[in-house]
Design goal:
DNA-binding, 3-stranded antiparallel beta sheet, alpha+beta, 305 residues, 32% helix
DNA sequence: AAACCTGTCAACCGCAAACCC
DNA sequence: AGGGTTTGCGGTTGACAGGTT
């Protein structure tokens, strides 16, 4: 016993939609809504189309909030980041891009971004000299809500981390963030150790920031955060993850209700401001592209007044 | 000018999940 | 609880346009 077809294929029109059909569908949905039943809709709207076809046409093309036109650099980054973390879950990815449909994103990825990313990877591969991080608490304890159980919480970061730390200790900008972008090449040219405070020594851990890995294997990791510290404490927490390209952003979950808060190296202060209803804010550095699929960075927490 | 190639994207297909009775 | 129906999703196809040979 096979499953019932969604419509009588012999009596429905297929192929490209005519302007008249578009108009009929648009008018009907705008006036009556879908009625929660796409199967019955074409008959009511006077269309000789399958319900699925109507649904697709509406969702992918006729909806008033659809964004037509080319994708922006920012959208590229979002897609690349989410693809790395989620795989081909196009509807989820599209939900992070207002006005874009899953079909749009899928087509864009398959025809443009995949190639672009591949080309970028070939260009950067082997250019950077990174020290692999044997103390990486993130990759070794992904399920832990807080950072390291090891005694040491130091990383072989370069001197540039100190520079970043210095930058982050400046007052935040108008948007409540910090303007700093790591130069990956500079960072890995030398490797003087940079010690970081051990977060678990802080009095109370009341918020966790997950770093959704930056990884092809969808690794998920956590670091702790302590939003009760005053700004002068400059409580830096370093993190590292796996796999990065120049397109990557960093997905962090500050536990403020949304699934995660996307922080890009350029736009994070604004996005973060939306995500954090209290006066606690975080600064985050750029993600680094490296030759051996590692990514590293630093973020700071402080109060924004 | 014609044939062929390549890229793009709308549309279709089939499966699984969700929903409803 | 279970079976039928509908919806949502990701993979794939095919028409078309533009470029190249």
């Amino acid at each position: 016993m096979g499953r019932a077809p969604c419509c009588d294929k012999a009596n429905v029109k297929r192929g490209p939609w005519s302007p008249e059909e578009d108009t009929a569908l648009k008018h009907y949905v705008e006036k009556h809504g879908t009625g929660g039943n796409w199967i019955a809709l074409p008959h009511k709207a006077g269309l000789k189309r399958c319900g699925k076809s109507c649904r697709l046409r509406w969702l992918n093309y006729l909806r008033p909030d659809i964004k037509h036109g080319s994708f922006t650099e920012e959208e590229d980054k979002v897609i690349c980041t989410l693809y790395k973390n989620l795989g081909s879950r196009w509807s989820v990815i599209a939900s992070h891009l207002p006005g874009r449909t899953d079909n749009d994103v899928k087509n864009y990825w398959n025809t443009k971004l995949k190639k672009k990313l591949l080309a970028a990877k070939n260009n950067t591969s082997g250019n950077l000299n990174i020290h692999s991080n044997s103390h990486n608490p993130i990759s070794t304890s992904p399920s832990s809500p807080c950072v390291s159980t090891s005694n040491s919480f130091s990383y072989n970061f370069s001197a540039q981390v100190t520079e970043v730390a210095s930058s982050l200790s400046q007052p935040p900008n108008e948007a409540g963030g910090f303007n700093y972008k790591l130069d990956s090449k500079k960072l890995f040219q030398n490797s003087s150790p940079f010690s970081l405070p051990r977060p678990s020594e802080s009095s109370e851990i009341s918020s966790c920031a997950k770093i959704f890995s930056v990884s092809t294997s969808s690794q998920e990791a956590s670091v702790s955060a302590t939003p009760s510290l005053p700004v002068e404490d400059n409580n830096y927490i370093a993190w590292s993850g796996n796999a990065a390209t120049e397109f990557d952003n960093i997905l962090m979950d500050f536990g403020h209700g949304s699934h995660y808060d996307l922080l890009s190296e350029y736009g994070f202060p604004e996005k973060l401001a939306e995500a954090t209803p209290n006066p606690v804010n975080f600064g985050l550095t750029s993600l680094l592209a490296t030759a051996d699929n590692k990514a590293q960075g630093v973020y700071q927490q402080c109060h924004i007044r």
